[in-house]
Amino acid sequence: MRVALFAALVFIAAPARADDAKRDFDLGMKLMQEKRFDDACDAFGRSDAAAPTMATKFQLGRCNEARHRYATARYDFIECAKLADAAGDKTRADAARQRVAEAEKRTPHLRLQVAPVDGERIVANGMDIPPDKWSQPLYVDPGKIALEASAPGRKPFNFDIDTSEPGAEIGVAIPELVPTDARAERPVGRPQGERVRRSPAMFGTGIALVSVGGVSLVAGAAFLAANQVECGGSLNCPVSAPGLAFVIGGIVCLGAGIPLAVIGGRKVPPPAAALHPWVSPTLAGLALSGSF
């Protein structure tokens, strides 16, 4: 009884689905003529879900081409060619493959260069890319693509790509994922967290000027003292010109050297540097940025 009831329901539902598919197909054709491509693609999509046919797949491809979703159109034409092959319709199969070739010329595609690790998974806009596809061109619709590579026990690698240029080949280098417990690399010869002088050159110059100024003051004082001895301590004794020059020079050196030594010798955190993924339509790699 149950089997007979199920068979009766299937018998009734099949014509209903076919009617729905035809109605949505006709609606899609009408909307295409009105250039309402988004609505037309929705109608063709419903028709295809109800009863997939070569005609529906082909028109769905045309519709997606019209709204510049060339990767999606390419897929629709491939599916149309498969149905045509299964039906032995060489003419339609050849026509669909011709449209596939035309769509590929306008479709941006990614070229992944992956340093794989165990269990790695790569996702583009939430859709998994199987490992056997990593070395093949990945055709994508124009727009923003969010790539994420992840693996158990590894830090994820995230990268956003702009695929707005039609037909562009975009190379993306995905480095070997770093273990989550990996220690941060430290600069050679410097303990982590050690502060450095703001400007070693400025500090060294300041120290040199302070040293010269101190020596000049001592020399000037010696010249002045010797001059006073020669004059017998007379208040009318002329000032020693060399002694006065040494004193003035020492004061100038100290006045310039002390601020340089203080400012240049101030301890600050070491400059930070970071590696960022970089991509162009023809090249891909890493860019080093920071203050040095």
Topology:
Blueprint: H1 2-33, H2 37-50, H3 54-66, H4 70-87, H5 90-106, E1 109-114, E2 121-124, E3 127-129, E4 138-139, E5 144-150, E6 157-162, E7 169-174, E8 196-197, H6 200-230, H7 241-264, E9 267-268, E10 273-279, E11 284-290
Parallel strand pairs: 1-7
Antiparallel strand pairs: 1-4, 2-3, 2-5, 5-6, 8-9, 10-11
Main attributes?
292 residues, alpha+beta, Serine Threonine Protein Phosphatase 5, Tetratricopeptide repeat, Immunoglobulin-like, 3 domains, four-stranded antiparallel sheet, three-stranded mixed sheet, 7 helices, 11 strands, disordered C terminus
Word description of this protein:
The protein has helices at 2-33, 37-50, 54-66, 70-87, 90-106, 200-230, 241-264, and strands at residues 109-114, 121-124, 127-129, 138-139, 144-150, 157-162, 169-174, 196-197, 267-268, 273-279, 284-290. Helix content is 51%, strand content 18%. The chain is rod-shaped and about 130 Å long. Helix 3 (54-66) packs antiparallel against helix 4. It has 3 domains: 2-106, Serine Threonine Protein Phosphatase 5, Tetratricopeptide repeat, CATH 1.25.40; 108-182 and 270-292, Sandwich (Immunoglobulin-like); 196-268. It starts with a helix and ends with a strand. Strand 5 (144-150) and strand 6 form a beta hairpin. 21% of the residues are buried. It is built from 7 helices and 11 strands. The strands form 4 sheets. It has a 4-stranded antiparallel beta sheet with strand order 3-2-5-6, with no helix packed on it. A 3-stranded mixed beta sheet has the order 4-1-7, with no helix packed on it. It is an alpha+beta fold.
